[in-house]
TrEMBL record:
Family label: Belongs to the glycosyltransferase 2 family. GtrB subfamily.
Stretches that traverse the bilayer: 241-262, 274-299
InterPro entries: Glyco_trans_2-like, Glycosyltransferase_2, Nucleotide-diphossugar_trans
Membrane topology label: Multi-pass membrane protein
Domain Glycosyltransferase 2-like as annotated: residue spans: 16-179
GO CC term, one of those recorded: plasma membrane
Places the protein is found: Cell membrane
Protein name as annotated: Glycosyltransferase family 2 protein
Major place of residence: membrane
Amino acid sequence: MIPNHPIPPARQKHLSIVVPFFNEGPGVEAFDAALQPILSALPDYQVEIVCVDDGSTDDTLERLLALATTDGRYRLLELSRNFGKEAALTAGIDAARGAAVVPMDADLQDPPAVLRQLLLSWEGGADVVLARRTDRSSDGLLKRTTAEWFYRMHNLVADIAIPQNVGDFRLMDRQVVEALKRLPERQRFMKGLFSWVGFRTEYVHYARGARAVGTTKFPGWKLWNFAIEGFTSFSTAPLRIWTYVGLVGAACTALYGAAILIRTLAFGVDVPGYASLLLAILFFGSLQLISLGLLGEYIGRIYIESKQRPVYIVRRQYGGDAARDAARPSLWRRTGSHASRWSRPFVPPVQHHAGSTQ
């Protein structure tokens, strides 16, 4: 059972901004430059910026460390390898301490200027404030079209609907974050998990701009796998659909067989059919392979979940209160019956490095 957290009359003005980074080195300073004037316009808020380096192979980590040394609001989680955006986002949300938590992308397609609108709706009593894209012209035609198809198909077959044209950019109240932290999935489709927890939701609208620096880290095949992840995470309808396909195929086969039998008995006409027989075999064989692949997706999810491996591993933490642990690697895992309970099963001795804070 998720405990109820009473909402105070005046919500604590503590904001956490969660930003995953993967090979975004050239855009780190641009992100900070765009964010600073927005934060300056929020003097009443205590702000922390939780940056998650998801195993970057460029100079992203070094640039983020430079920001953390000059601005105490930056907290940096360095993951031990590239776990993927969903895992990095989970790590940042788990580490966030604010009364309001805002995940956003580092490429500035989620404009920091929208933060004020999100906070106004939250101050008005909303538990979740979604940032909906009204203009996606910066995305290519193919991406816009496939995204629209995905939302429609997902909401048609899934138990939980995902708001259309809404990404990860949103504001969540602390009680929403605590509910998310209790979800035990290892394979995390965050858009679906955000919708699953519910809570009172409002919308703000914005025009999605072009990427400020660099290139997208989500090529077409990753988006395809991401879509499959969404379908299999929140619906068993594909399994039912193939059951119906099998029933319809069996019925059509029976009718066709009856027609051949009647024709042969009534007219004595043989029905030659090597080509049609081969076509039928190939057709139903393809259906079987597709259905086996679909079944394998679900079985694979069960296999991955049963191993109970951690969603992510934090190698080091920098900035804020984590500065004293900067030289102490840490392995994190989920324990207990709730996913929000954490422990450190193994902490090696402190490794002394020049310039490290103990």
